[in-house]
């Protein structure tokens, strides 16, 4: 943990993929009471194949969150690297990540999604816990406006992420999916809820459009923080400004209020303040991008900024 650690805070992070991994690597420096809530709508690659073949929730983003939480000082790091191993070749294992296979095997053996994920946490000496957004696979469905003005429905996370049009609206199906009970409990008990960064519509906003989750977030008394992306993503957010990213959260979160929006100082623009105000949030601007790759967050820098902000909030 950092010198600014706040070990009593219960923090819940929402997202998926590489964006959630970055925030988890930062947040685990602040508190051991960390829970990642991961979307379950991935329908591509190894996860999509396992989802289709075994009727399980897609394990890939869950695996990435688990490895992000592993203990860097123990053999957990070794096991994390093993779980990330992806098979090459031309056989039936080609493209599968070993961790996806392990997680799926645990689910089949134990018959319990959460117990299987907790078992991997123990294997990795993980600092925290990983839970699914829902107990069944979900599908992202978007209304996309294409050049010329026509709006079409695009189905599936991979298709939405790669769309060449402008996402007008997004939803998850089935809308009445059963939420993971432990996920709902984590939201209710959280002191802080963190959203972003990540694929904006398919990994971040998707948490806001499942009705039961949206209601739980609105009713939560936790401080809510949004970590903005460092760049637009080819496909679902092509051409988006930083303010447009924040505005899309306001549009889909409706009455959900945030306390702060964290942005890279080099990307600051005046419209962001106005967009953040629509969320009820202040803007926290700091150097949080990685110096060697400005399109990804630096976990150590992000941890310092978050801890400093939360320390001030706790003192106030």
Please explain how this structure is put together.
By secondary structure, this protein is α/β, with parallel strands linked by helices. The chain has 13 helices and ten strands. It has a seven-stranded parallel β-sheet, sandwiched between helices. α12 links the parallel β9 and β10. α3 runs antiparallel to α4. The protein is globular, with a radius of gyration of 19 Å. The model has no long low-confidence stretch (mean pLDDT 93).
Itemize the secondary structure elements and their pairings:
Layout: E1 11-15, H1 17-27, E2 34-38, H2 45-54, H3 60-68, H4 76-84, H5 98-110, H6 113-124, E3 129-132, E4 139-145, E5 151-155, H7 157-161, E6 166-173, H8 181-189, E7 192-195, H9 200-204, H10 211-219, E8 223-227, H11 242-253, E9 260-264, H12 270-278, E10 282-286, H13 299-315
Parallel strand pairs: 1-2, 1-7, 2-3, 7-8, 8-9, 9-10
Antiparallel strand pairs: 4-5, 4-6
């Amino acid at each position: 943990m950092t010198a600014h650690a706040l070990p009593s805070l219960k923090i819940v992070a929402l997202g998926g993929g590489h964006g959630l991994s970055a925030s988890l690597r930062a947040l685990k420096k602040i508190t051991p009471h960390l829970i990642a809530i991961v979307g379950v709508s991935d329908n591509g690659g190894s996860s999509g194949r396992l989802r289709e073949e075994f009727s399980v929730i897609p394990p890939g983003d869950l695996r990435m969150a688990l490895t992000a939480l592993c203990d860097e000082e123990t053999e957990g790091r070794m096991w994390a690297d093993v779980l990330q191993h992806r098979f090459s070749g031309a056989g039936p294992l080609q493209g599968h990540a070993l961790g996806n296979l392990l997680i799926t095997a645990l689910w089949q053996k134990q018959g319990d999604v959460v117990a299987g994920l907790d078992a991997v946490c123990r294997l990795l000496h993980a600092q925290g816990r990983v839970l699914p957004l829902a107990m069944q696979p979900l599908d992202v469905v978007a209304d996309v406006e294409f050049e010329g003005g026509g709006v079409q429905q695009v189905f599936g996370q991979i298709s939405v992420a790669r769309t060449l049009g402008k996402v007008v609206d997004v939803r998850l199906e089935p809308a009445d999916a059963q939420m993971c009970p432990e996920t709902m409990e984590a939201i209710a008990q959280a002191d802080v809820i963190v959203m972003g960064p990540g694929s904006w519509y398919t990994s971040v906003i998707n948490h806001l459009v499942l009705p039961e989750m949206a209601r739980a977030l609105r009713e939560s008394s936790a401080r809510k923080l949004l970590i903005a992306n460092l760049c637009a993503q080819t496909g679902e957010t092509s051409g988006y400004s930083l303010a447009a990213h924040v505005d899309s959260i306001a549009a889909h979160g409706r009455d959900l209020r945030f306390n702060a929006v964290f942005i890279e100082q080099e990307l600051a623009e005046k419209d962001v303040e106005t967009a953040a105000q629509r969320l009820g949030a202040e803007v926290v601007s700091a150097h949080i991008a990685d110096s060697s790759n400005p399109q990804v967050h630096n976990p150590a820098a992000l941890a310092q900024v978050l801890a400093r902000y939360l320390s001030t909030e706790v003192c106030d």
